[in-house]
Amino acid sequence: MKKQYNFQNWLQTKVSDDPEVVLAGKLEYLRLYLTDAMRELRTKAGLTQAQLAEKLGVQQAAVSKLESALKDHELESVLNYLHKLDADLLVAVKQGNEFYQVSDNSGILLVDLPVEVQELATSKGMSLREYVQAAIEHFSSKGRTVRESVTAFLESDDVVAVQVLERLAAKSPVEIAIELEKCLSISDEEERTFAIKNALAGGIRTGDNNRDASDEDDEIELLDLAESLLEKLAKVLEDSVNNISNSG
């Protein structure tokens, strides 16, 4: 909407201690906000009051009354008005720290945000909605696990990733990522490398003394691949952390 009333600041303004006066003020504000939104929706739809009245099956005077902040409004009439404009009324109830959304929440959720969030959004030159969506995107990426990052790497066309998938063709990228995640949690660098080598060997430790030359060649190849994979994964995880820092 073009007009952005600051409901929280308005409610916090001390006008009177009389409960009736406070209630009257809240009702006045809600009428102003609601009718302004209704008029703007109708205007955006390119409809005159008369045209919308025809859709509603009422007289133009009835639409004019609905768009007047000086009149009382029946909830059913307001909902019908909005429905004809493909709009919904979202309603929530707040008591102390408790917040309840009582309208349909299948498409969107109302969230109890302090007024400071609006100030932060304004300081960034963003609308409140844009700011919250950016925050959600930021924290979603921040919550990306090691497993998800490793899986994404394995599903890429990187040469090392392709070699890993070829060696462990019987396993999915997610299954491989789960094993690699365990290996990466090992603090000792040498042990971590050999754990990855064993994972690349299909989990079979090849430590017996009766290996032929081809076995030894494969051991060397596995170790080289393990070291290359570790380097790649270190870069992937570092980039993930940097992206989160930069987005903040």
TrEMBL record:
InterPro entries: Cro/C1-type_HTH, Lambda_DNA-bd_dom_sf. It comes from the Bacteria. Residues 38-68 form the HTH cro/C1-type domain. Gene3D superfamilies: lambda repressor-like DNA-binding domains (1.10.260.40). This is Helix-turn-helix domain-containing protein. It comes from Floridaenema aerugineum BLCC-F46.
